[in-house]
Amino acid sequence: MMSGGIFMMGFGLIALLLVVTLPIVLIAVLIWASTRNERPLSQAPAIPYMPTVGGRACSHCGATLQTGWSHCPQCGTPIEKG
Length: 82
What we know:
Elements: H1 2-36, E1 56-57, E2 64-65
Antiparallel strand pairs: 1-2
């Protein structure tokens, strides 16, 4: 009689651990997998240098500039008027 009660208690503990820990582990793995593929902003690809035809280029990074801009959209350097 006693061995059946211990067996059921052990089975109940294992079932409880599976019900509680399995969802927590799955959520942790999903969060880890989704954040693993994100690239930090510092590693973002730079806009390649493109020579302008009749336009202006940033003196710091060489990005193409449009008239009316006060700062370079690529590096943030203030644009000199002129």
